[in-house]
Amino acid sequence: MIRTITETIQDETKKWLIAAGVAEGVVVLDRTIQPEFGEYTTNAAMRCAKILGRSPFEIAEALAAFLRQQGIGGLADAVAVKPGFVNFYLTIEAKVQHLSTIRGEDTDFGKNNYHAGEKWVVEYISPNPNKAMHLGHLRNALVGAGIIELLKASGATVVSDTVYNNRGIAIAKVMYGYLAHMKQAANIPTDVAYWVEHQSEWFTPEEKNLKPDLFVTECYVLGERDIQANPEIDQFVRQLVVVWEAGDTTVWKLWRYVLTLAYTGIDRTLSRLGTTWDKVWYEHEHYQKGKDYVEKGLQAGIFRQLADGAVLTNLEETYGLTDTVLLKNDGTSLYITQDIALTDLKKKTYEADKLIWVIGPEQSLAMKQLFAVCEQLGIGKRTDFTHVPYGYVGLRDEFGAFKKMASRAGTVVLIDDVLDEVKLNIKKRFTEEGKHDEATAEILGEKLALAAVKFAFLRSDREQGMTFDVEQSVDIHGDSGVYVLYAYVRTKSIWRKVGNPKEISYIAPTVLGEEADLLRTLLYFEGVVTKATADLSVHHIAQYLLELSSEFNRWYARETVLDGSDQEQYKLAIVAAVGTVLENGLSLLGIETVEEI
RNA sequence: GCGCCUAUGGUGAAAUGGAUAUCACAACUGACUUCGGAUCAGUCGUUCUGGGUUCGAGUCCUGGUAGGCGCACCA
Q1: Which pLDDT band, with edges at 50, 70 and 90, does A38 fall under?
Q2: pLDDT confidence of A395, banded at 50, 70, 90?
């Protein structure tokens, strides 16, 4: 309904512009900054003032007069103002009718067909088996999940995927660290073959009372320390990689064992977050295939070989990019080598139109190089590949300045720790107010903690760096996920009170009262989703939800919904609409709603 | 050295080139404890800097300052 009105206004405006002599140009309808300016506005008159050689205001007046005469349904008035805006005022019926649209479309309300028929592959968080997941991974997970939800909501078919970097030196360090430091007695040899026969002589994560991924991290840290101190151990670890690559069955047993531990722990955190993938790529399955592509490119003269045997790109001239090595002088592959193979694999497996990588900004150059090389090899067009970076998550040092998280300095903040701390705060509050029994408090505390943390990470632009501070960053007051949920709970509570009726009927008012701003804000949700999709950032939605919650709470404080008047049903319709929009918006953020707090 | 990114109240943030820059936190002052007060109302206080483009700039271009990141055989 609202969409029909805005589209008609746009069409009619375009028609008028063409008649006036402006052939091209897109007519954009924006939301107004204030209710006094109506619901929508256009700057079309100012944009074409130069071409038409008339003053913007004059054009605006003529355009407004024309639109008023077109008898556009739902449009009450079109008014030209100051520099040259034309403001549009919708009829009360149209705004009230919108409530029924929301109720009718229910969970589909807000969806669009911006990317209908397209197939996207989105790669996000590739957890490292040697490190428990920290806040950087969290941001990646949430940004990625948001993009996936947006694309789905705009009609695209989405395949989400990830790469498990499960081979190489890092995992070999874990294997060594485990063998050397997790044995139950000092006289047990640090030997793979011995381990295979006497596995029970080593500690398990349970025996160490550690979450499996933390156990693995511990192995890695201890292994790394030995390597730094002793070149012989470094040699031992390198040898492990070589033997692994040769397919040695005993080493593979150990490799499988530590990886299973790592991913068991990681999966526990991921399932807490609700993070899943449609497809997991295992590096060990495709990393060798990249060499074939490099060979092919070399023969085609796309790449060049250095005197020492290493293979180099030719990107400087065509793409203006710094060249990079594709194959080491010893013939082994690099990160980019396997990524070439994987990109082709993804395109072919899923017949993808567009591919997205959600990866930190430090990979920016590497991504550009990958895209260019893939284009040279005919794997796909560079423009179909998108790197979506996100800002760093840092901590605050003792002077309040930004400090990067570093595993070595022990300043990494883990996802589980943050969630647990926020949950503890929430549960403490429950206890203070004597609200829920332990079981309910646990479930609700977890949901609210997730909502608070996710919202805190998603409410600002994804490229904005963030300095993390549990106290400040994960607010459960003010601009927070809990605030939005609280507004939502209120809508549900009122609705419960009247017995969750299936149907409500009311007569639309002839004059709007306190609810005017709320009705106006409800108009904009669809536009916000469209914008978020175009920007591939859900923060627009988070901001909108705060605005809507705030409007609702203000209205709620001034108005009694269940007052037994003839307005009651109408007010219930508003409550229902707000609830639906909040729920749909939160769902795009990956936040589950709750019925009570 | 070259390249990329960032700079908004005391703090954390918002603002497709649009109208008087919007919120929250903190501080201070208030509100029938209600259809759920984890709420509502109020006070206080902002676009790093020089130039340019534009009818109009926090936003675009350019010089500078400050910070972050990257630049070939690591991942």
Answers
A1: very high
A2: confident
Residue A554 (CA) to nucleotide B29 (C1'), in angstroms, measures: 19
Residue nearest to nucleotide B23 (CA to C1'): A479
Instruction: Give Cα separations from A211 to A97, A261, A423, A576 (angstroms).
Output: 54, 9, 19, 43
Rounded, the Å distance between the CA of A477 and C1' of B45 is 21
Query: Can you give the residue ranges of every domain in chain A?
Result: 2-90, 96-112+478-588, 120-165+281-393, 169-279
Q: Please give the ipTM for the structure prediction.
A: 0.95
How many Å apart are A405 CA and B40 C1'?
Answer: 40
Chain B: bases < 7 Å from a protein Cβ: 3-7, 11-20, 23-26, 32, 34-41, 55-56, 67-75
CA pair distance A389, A382, nearest whole angstrom? 17
User: Which nucleotide is closest, CA of A433 to its C1'?
Assistant: B38
Looking at residues A8-20, what average pLDDT do you find? 92
Which residues neighbour A537 within 8 Å (Cβ) at sequence distance 6 or greater? A143, A146, A147, A461, A462
> What average pLDDT does this structure show over A176-183?
96
Q: How far is the CA of A569 from the C1' of B2 (A)?
A: 67
Contact A586, A452 (CB under 8 A): no
A344 CA from B1 C1′ (Å): 36
pLDDT tens figures, A456-494? 999 999 988 887 777 777 778 889 999 999 999 999 999
> Could you tell me which of A81, A70, A99, A8 has the C-alpha nearest to residue A38?
A81
Round to a whole number and report the distance in Å from the CA of A551 to the C1' of B30.
Answer: 21
CATH topology of domain A96-112+478-588: Isoleucyl-tRNA Synthetase; Domain 1 (1.10.730)
Specify whether the backbone of A264 is left (phi greater than 0), alpha (psi in -120 to 50) or beta.
Answer: alpha
Which nucleotide is at minimal CA–C1' distance from A327? B73
Per-residue model confidence as pLDDT tens digits over A501-557: 888 888 889 999 889 999 999 999 999 999 999 999 999 999 999 999 999 999 999
C-alpha angle with apex A151: A145 to A157, nearest 5 degrees? 105
Residue A515's φ and ψ, nearest 5 degrees, are -80, -5
Cα(A253)–Cα(A361) distance, integer angstroms:
36
Is the domain spanning A2-90 CATH 3.30.1360.70? The answer is yes
